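User: Could you write out the 3D structure of this protein bound to copper (II) ion? I've included everything you need below.
Assistant: Certainly. Input first, then the structure.
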Amino acid sequence: MQQPGRARLGGACTLLALVGCSNGGNGNGPDTTSTPPAATSAGPAAARIVIENFAFTPANLRVRPGTKITVFNRDSVPHTVTAGDKAFDTGNIAGDATATFTAPSASGSYAYICTIHPNMKGTLTVS
Ligand SMILES: [Cu+2]
């Protein structure tokens, strides 16, 4: 007699799993670790630059000092993110690879290029 009811609860729980199911009676509730990843806090602590079709996106990025910036190279050829004064430099980022650098601690506007393709230009503003 209990089995049909449980099956129905299970189905509802599956549907509710995305928003959080508080049923958790039969041991497969994954709610014991209640520390969510910090993915939703897209605050000033992290930023990203995407390289695609030989262009930086966004071309103008504003971050806080010391922000970790992840660079995604979606092209099939290597690129770099290199500040004109070498305040930061990822070095070569292979095609379809990712690199990370840290924004300077000093406020200012940092123009950068790809040293392999110097016509690729962007600006990182630290403030
Ligand atoms: Cu390049």
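Residues 10 and 26 are 10 Å apart (CA to CA).
User: Perfect, thank you.
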